[in-house]
Amino acid sequence: MTHRLMLSALVLGLGFCASPRCDALDTAPRPASDPAWSRFDFLDANRDGVLSKYEYDSDVVFETADANRDQLLSPDELQAALGPQPADAPTAPERMIAVDLDRDGQLDDAELRRALEMRFSWLDRNADGGLDFDEMKAGVGARVRP
């Protein structure tokens, strides 16, 4: 987790925002104790309050999750990247079954990107090409059927 926070601070910490929408977000109360907010805030590189497809499918996600730098995500690495999940949420191995195309029990970059693309499309309920916090939070722990 410390590595993750340092990486996010290094990569994302310089994302300043000058738009009026960001000013409003800066004054809005943030649910700091909400794990979904932590993930959303981590991914929102430009701090505009909306995750673009690029932010959601960024290299930072894979690099941060791939703790041993072998270019593969194991179930343990995926679980660590997901963080605490609701008790009824699917486990990391259960999540991997649908997207592990070569059935090696791990996800490579292409498999992860495919999974993130499917999930992004599913979460983007209003099909505007971006995820706001409510859209992302609605999908935390939910199963996505390919």
Q: Any idea what the CATH architecture is?
A: Orthogonal Bundle
* Strand ordering within the main sheet: 1-2
Number of helical elements: 9
How many extended strands?
2
In CATH's first tier, which class applies?
Mainly Alpha
For the report, how would you describe the main beta sheet?
Answer: 2 strands, antiparallel
Nearest-integer average pLDDT: 74
| Global outline | globular
CATH superfamily: EF-hand
Give the topology string: H per helix, E per strand.
Answer: HHHEHHHHHEH
Residues in helices, as a percent range: 40-55%
Keywords: Signal
InterPro entries: EF-hand-dom_pair, EF_Hand_1_Ca_BS, EF_hand_dom
Domain EF-hand: 57-85, 115-143
Signal peptide: 1-24
Key features of this structure:
mainly alpha, EF-hand-dom_pair, 146 residues, 2 strands, two-stranded antiparallel ribbon, EF_Hand_1_Ca_BS, signal, Recoverin, domain 1, EF-hand domain-containing protein, EF_hand_dom
